[in-house]
Structure to design on (328 residues):
């Protein structure tokens, strides 16, 4: 094993799909800060046995996106909306449903999403308890304000006009290997090793032989994970969770590992990889529950950085962070 390498253990004998999880009721509106509320939703999913960043993608419906703007949701919003298990990928606010001549059915509950606005003054942030300031690398260190909105799936609404038929709702998928090969400033890949890992000191991804993986999806999920790590190298995104961490390869529940897990999930979604490739043991779920309960900003921050890493690998320039979801 190479020293100071972030390692993903590989066991080809593990099942490549998750067991069915109990149906989770639609989420209600708790009080507290944006971080508290989003983290409470993720914790509820984990306690129900669903790990949002390992939930199998439904390649038939595609990426969650806003019905009015047709813009895809990003970051932690993708995980929250996808976990709701609706067939349609389209979401909208209560107001947008009314503007389309329809309405939300009585008794339906909303799902929270976060979007960021430029913070004009510290006083304005203090005036609203559901907003929080945060500095993001994507915005060149501008101070941003996290704001919470509540959205409904089109399946929760009635009489909406001009909804695309389900057959037309699937997005364009990317070839998995093309995602890896087209990564800007891509690191070298060395095959034939005993485990999958990324070495920051030597800047290469180590992978076992492709044939030892139980499925092609398992192979790509793993190589995506390691390339998300590689995106944080000083010559690429210079992510502090990779470049400034001490002993970063020893803690499976560190922030950098969560970034890699989420980032790999985003890339799997873009490639149409519809099955989860790892089992979610009770110990794994408990490990993340303890982390999230002790750090309420972890999941939102990690998801934002995972999205940034996935954008880098895909060669995409992120939308303006002031209203990336098309929410009004």
């Amino acid at each position: 094993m190479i020293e100071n390498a972030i390692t993903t253990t590989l066991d080809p004998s593990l099942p490549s799909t998750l067991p069915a999880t109990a149906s989770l009721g639609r989420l209600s509106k708790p009080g507290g800060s944006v971080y508290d509320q989003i983290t409470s939703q993720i914790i509820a999913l984990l306690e129900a046995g669903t790990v949002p960043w390992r939930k199998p993608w439904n390649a038939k419906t595609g990426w969650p996106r806003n019905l009015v703007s047709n813009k895809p949701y990003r970051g932690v919003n993708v995980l929250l909306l996808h976990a709701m298990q609706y067939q349609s990928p389209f979401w909208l606010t209560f107001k947008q449903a009314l503007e389309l001549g329809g309405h939300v059915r009585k008794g339906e509950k909303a799902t929270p999403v976060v979007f960021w606005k430029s913070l004009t003054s510290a006083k304005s942030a203090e005036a609203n308890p559901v907003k929080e300031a945060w500095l993001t690398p994507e915005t060149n260190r501008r101070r941003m304000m996290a704001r919470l909105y509540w959205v409904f799936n089109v399946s929760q609404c009635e009489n909406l006009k001009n909804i695309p038929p389900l057959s037309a709702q699937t997005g364009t998928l990317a070839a998995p290997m093309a995602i890896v090969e087209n990564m800007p400033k891509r690191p070298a890949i060395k095959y034939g090793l005993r485990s999958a890992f990324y070495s920051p000191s030597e800047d290469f991804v180590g992978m076992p032989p492709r044939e030892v993986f139980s499925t092609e999806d398992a192979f790509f999920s793993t190589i995506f994970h390691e390339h998300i790590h590689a995106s944080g190298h000083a010559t690429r995104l210079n992510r502090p969770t990779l470049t400034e961490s001490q002993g970063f390869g020893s803690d499976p529940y560190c922030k950098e590992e969560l970034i890699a897990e989420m980032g790999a999930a985003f890339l799997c979604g873009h490639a149409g990889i519809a099955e989860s490739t790892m089992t979610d043991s009770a110990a794994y779920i408990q490990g993340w529950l303890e982390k999230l309960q002790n750090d309420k900003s972890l999941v939102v921050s990690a998801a934002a950085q995972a999205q940034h890493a996935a954008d880098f690998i895909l060669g995409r320039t992120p939308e303006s962070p002031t209203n990336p979801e098309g929410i009004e």
